[in-house]
Structures are given as C-alpha cells and as structure tokens.
Input
Amino acid sequence: RPGPITANRGGPGELSGRPRIPDMDLAPVADWEPSRIGDPERAAAVLVPVTEPGTELVFIRRSSTLAEHPGEMSFPGGNVERRDRNREATAIRESGEEVGLRPAEITTVGRLDDVQTVSGYTVSPFVATVPNRDYGPGDDEVAEVVRLAVGDLADPANHTFESREHPGFGTVPC
Output
C-alpha cells in the first residue's frame, strides 16, 4: 500500500538559479493509521525530521566505529529504554542525544508503519517538523548530520537499487 508522504511537484521556479524544491505535504501523515508490530524483542524508534517549511529531511551517518550499523545513513533514533514513556519518547530522546534537538523544537505530525529490519529490530518512525537550523553530531555514535532536499529524494533519477554483503546477514538489499 502506498505511504502517506508525498512531495508537491509545483511548477518550475527559480531560486538562486536552481529549480524550486517542492515542500512536503504532511497533512496525510496525521490521519495515517500505521501498521504496528506489537511488543517486539528489539524495539527502536526514529524521528523523521522535516525542516520547516518542509523542504529537507535531516539524516545522520553513524560512526564507522560502532558495533551495530557502522557508517549507515539513518534518521536519528535508537533502542527503546525503560525510562521512555513510549516509542515516540524514544525518538525524541535519541534525536536530542544525536543531533541536539530539544523536545520543545519538535512537533510530531504522526507515526508511520513499523518496519522490521534485517538485524531483528522493529523500528517505529515518527514524522515531525523541526526548525530550519544547523544541526551537528551530538554524541560519539554520529559521524555526520546530513540534510537532504525533498525534491532530490523524490527524483527517480537519483534512485538506485543494489545488494551488499553483510557480515552477519548475508546479501541484503539497499
């Protein structure tokens, strides 16, 4: 089934000599009824940070020294801990630790479908708007913070599909 996030592809415009980057329409996310995986053994949550006014997403590149998921690109997030009220609280806490987002800066729009990873985690993604400002690595787990334009992510010319060998899980699509 198709997901709720779409990029508005307005007419071409010019902004500093570059084509207009479309804003994201986040309204469908608020009404989305996500599929949830009950009480997984390895629960995690991520924040899908959309910069206001909806032109970029904030990603992290994980440190290459980590035992799990070294060097991978991801959204800020991590394992659910006992102190977290729920999975959304996990995503918010981890975003603070990893990129310096303060809870007051985060406006949660909605939750997307839970995702089961090849490494056995069940990840709950929460879409949120965040201020359009600079972000930097907040802890040793993050090597780099990367902001990517929605227009570039939505452009099929930028999409490739490949498989890679993972030492613990064999050939995995990416």
About this structure: The mean pLDDT is 85. The longest helix spans residues 87-99.
